[in-house]
Design brief:
The chain is α+β, with helices and mostly antiparallel strands. The protein contains eight helices and 17 strands. It has three domains: 105 residues, wza like domain (wza like fold); 76 residues, Outer membrane lipoprotein wza domain like (Outer membrane lipoprotein wza fold like), CATH 3.10.560.10; 81 residues, Outer membrane lipoprotein wza fold like.
C-alpha cells in the first residue's frame, strides 16, 4: 500500500511539473571529466523529486534524495555518471529502469591562472579546447614590459616558452593545450637604467641581451644632452652581488674609434657632466652677453 502511494505521488508530481530533463540540457557545457566543486544538473525521467542541480563534494561524490550512499563522480565523464546513477537507483530498488541525464552547469575544478606582464591578469575555467594562446588572449595580451619567455607551470613542472616562437613564429609545438590546474606567468623583462646627461633618462627593457649596448641605450634616451662627458660609467653587480664601476670611452665609441660596449639587464649607465666644458661655455656666454650690451651702448651713444 505504501509503495503504491509513493508511485502515485511521483506520477502526480511528474504531471504537474515541466520536463526538467530538457531544461537541464540547455545549460550543458562540453563534456569533460568532472572534478570537485563542479555543478551538474541531474535529470531522471518521470522522477522530478530526483531531478536537481548538485555540486561535487570535497570527496568527489554527489548525493541524491532517496539514495543511502553518495555516488563517486570525480574523474567521470557526464555519460559515465549517468550510468552510475542509474545503477544506484536500480540497486536500491527505487526505480526499475531509470533514464538518467547528466549535464554540466558550471565547471569549477579546472582553473587556469594568468599573471605577470599581461594586460588583465585573471583566473578562468578550462572549458573545451584551451591553449596557451587562448589563455593569453583572455588576458588581453602581453604588456610592453613583458620579457622574452612565458613560464607554464603544471604538475609541478615548469615549461619555458619563447615569446618569439609562440607569437612571432606561430610555432604550434609551443602552443600547449591546457586542461585546468595550470599557471601561466609572464615575467617582466630586465631593464637597463640610463641617467645623467641624456635627453630622456629612464629604464629601458632588455629584449635580447646580445643586442643591448651603450649606443642603443643612448638612442633610446634620445641622444646625449649638451656638455656630456667623454667618459661614461657602467655600474654592474658581479656574481657575488658586489657593485663594480666600469669606465667606457664614450667619445671614442661615438666617433667609431672604439667598439660599442655590451650591456646586460640590471646595468646602470651613467653619463656625467663635463664640468670644465660647461664652465668654459658659461664664461663665453657671459662674455658674449657683455659684448652685446657694450656694443648696444656704443650705438646708442653715437
Amino acid at each position: 500500500m505504501r509503495i503504491a502511494l509513493f508511485f502515485a505521488a511521483m506520477l502526480c508530481l511528474a504531471q504537474n511539473r515541466p520536463n526538467l530533463m530538457e531544461d537541464a540540457g540547455k545549460a550543458n557545457l562540453p563534456s569533460q571529466r568532472l572534478g570537485v566543486d563542479d555543478l551538474i544538473a541531474v535529470s531522471v525521467y518521470d522522477a522530478p523529486e530526483l531531478t536537481r542541480t548538485v555540486r561535487l563534494e570535497t570527496d568527489g561524490s554527489i548525493h541524491l534524495p532517496l539514495l543511502n550512499k553518495g555516488i563517486p563522480a570525480a574523474g567521470l565523464y557526464p555519460g559515465q555518471l549517468e550510468s552510475a546513477i542509474a545503477e544506484a537507483l536500480k540497486q536500491e530498488q527505487i526505480l526499475v529502469d531509470p533514464v538518467v541525464k547528466v549535464t554540466v552547469a558550471e565547471y569549477h575544478s579546472r582553473p587556469i591562472a594568468v599573471m605577470g606582464a599581461v594586460r588583465r591578469p585573471l583566473t578562468f575555467q578550462a572549458v573545451g579546447v584551451v591553449t596557451v594562446l587562448d589563455a593569453l588572449a583572455k588576458a588581453e595580451g602581453l604588456t610592453s614590459d613583458a620579457g622574452t619567455e612565458i613560464l607554464l607551470t603544471r604538475s609541478d613542472q615548469v615549461e619555458h616558452i619563447s615569446v618569439k616562437r609562440l607569437l612571432e613564429d606561430a610555432d604550434p609545438s609551443v602552443n600547449y593545450p591546457l586542461h585546468g590546474g595550470e599557471e601561466i606567468r609572464v615575467p617582466e623583462a630586465g631593464k637597463v637604467f640610463v641617467v645623467g646627461n641624456v635627453r630622456k633618462p629612464g629604464a629601458f627593457p632588455v629584449r635580447d641581451s646580445a643586442d643591448e649596448s651603450v649606443l642603443k641605450m643612448i638612442a633610446l634616451s634620445e641622444g646625449l644632452a649638451p656638455y656630456a662627458a667623454k667618459t661614461a660609467y657602467i655600474y654592474r653587480r658581479d656574481a657575488s652581488g658586489q657593485r663594480k664601476e666600469i669606465p667606457v670611452e664614450l667619445a671614442k665609441i661615438m666617433q667609431r674609434k672604439a667598439p660599442d660596449f655590451p650591456l646586460q639587464a640590471g646595468d646602470l649607465l651613467y653619463i656625467p657632466d663635463n664640468k670644465n666644458r660647461r664652465a668654459a661655455m658659461t664664461t663665453l656666454d657671459r662674455l658674449a652677453n657683455f659684448g652685446g650690451y657694450t656694443m648696444a651702448n656704443i650705438v646708442i651713444w653715437h
